[in-house]
Amino acid sequence: MSDSIKYLLSEDRMPKAWYNLVADLPVPPPAVLHPGTGQPVGPDDLAPLFPMALIAQEVTAEREVEIPEPVRDVYRQWRPSPLFRARKLEKALDTPAKIYYKYEGVSPTGSHKPNTAVPQAFYNKQEGTKRLTTETGAGQWGSSIAYAGQYFGLEVDVYMVKVSFQQKPYRRALMQTFGARCVASPSVETNSGRAVLAEYPDSTGSLGIAISEAVEMAAQRDDTKYALGSVLNHVLLHQSIIGLEAMEQMDMAGDDPDIVIGCAGGGSNLAGLAFPYIGRNLREGKKTRIIAAEPASCPTLTRGKFAYDFGDTASLTPLVKMYTLGSNFIPSPIHAGGLRYHGMAPLLSHAYSLGLMEARAYAQTECFIAGVTFAKAEGIVPAPESTHAVKAAIDEALKCKESGESKTILFNLSGHGYFDMQAYTDFFDGKLTDEPYDEAMLAKSLGGLPDIAAE
């Protein structure tokens, strides 16, 4: 029996096409609606924000979408990413479970986000875009689009959620190193930012607010487009390379997962690993369980409503049907800034509504405990977001210990935490708290959903 720890694919075995779950769904996903007319949006409605190549990917029902060679050339810097067997963690937990993790922290910015940042920058460059605006929570996405933007010669402006801007100065520095401008959101640069500050002068910000600012700035110039790091179909499509590689690597290991896990905020890293497995379940009748691990302070899947809502706080975006806490919901300032989003990706939400996956919500401190347990065993410090997936994986492994079953668990370690050590310092100093969300705010936010939500 092999005692291998890592499973590596050569560059020539990198997937040549992304996978699109839409092709295998038993029920088509709900339409995206124009906020003014309530009718399905067309390409012209999205053209002010996105290049036509990405709009085509957003609506395609094709199972495979070819990865352009210039994108694959950049991917080769870190892809295929490694798959690890967590043998030391298994031993530390004394579990009969087999635990594997796909490690996306080997990318230039330390997370899975360049998987979509690179193609987004490429397609924008092809169409003649000069400047990109975007939002970021913890900074993984902002640093990734900054990296991709400098590679393809694009100017990048990043609106970073204010609490993360303050908590994570090294993420800001990384964006600046790649030539991007980073602004704390809400800011005084935009109408939407000024409106929030007028009502809440001490606002810690949210991804919904930062999206509003980035969209508003993109709409002001013809040479500028908007880039989004999660949620939309084309983003999830690009991330599918994670799961496609993982399938080949699990074959190399002579194993197959019973359970696939990812942390969930907007949904990109979870979908990236899980969608190829959900598609296989649908095509071949397999029963691989998919688990979304989300923060208890922003429990979009476990407490949200499946309804049409705006993707941003200022109601500038199209209406999408997703699990949402309401676009005015502002989560507690937890360190997992990348998971502090009021909505879940519409395609992932659709899959959840069809019963194709499960969801769990975890508090901040229990996730950091899991992250430290993992780091001590495996030698990698997980990003605060990724600790949610680690927590879910450990829980499943301990269930196997209780039952005596030897299940195979695969999770996405979506990024390292070496830019997030202040979070670990706060944890060790006893400064981290499990701040519950405000029930009154949630009720008010859900009560303010667009009227179409009731249809």
UniProtKB/TrEMBL annotation:
UniProt modified residues of type N6-(pyridoxal phosphate)lysine: 113
Entry cofactors: pyridoxal 5'-phosphate
Pathway: Amino-acid biosynthesis; L-tryptophan biosynthesis; L-tryptophan from chorismate: step 5/5
Gene Ontology cellular-component terms listed: cytoplasm
Catalytic activity: (1S,2R)-1-C-(indol-3-yl)glycerol 3-phosphate + L-serine = D-glyceraldehyde 3-phosphate + L-tryptophan + H2O
Residue ranges of coiled coil: none
Molecular functions (GO terms): L-serine hydro-lyase (adding indole, L-tryptophan-forming) activity; pyridoxal phosphate binding; tryptophan synthase activity
EC number: 4.2.1.20
PANTHER family: TRYPTOPHAN SYNTHASE, TRYPTOPHAN SYNTHASE-RELATED
Function: The beta subunit is responsible for the synthesis of L-tryptophan from indole and L-serine.
Family: Belongs to the TrpB family.
This protein's name: Tryptophan synthase beta chain
Annotated organism of origin: Magnetovibrio blakemorei
Lineage, broadest ranks: Bacteria, Pseudomonadati, Pseudomonadota, Alphaproteobacteria, Rhodospirillales
Underlying gene: trpB
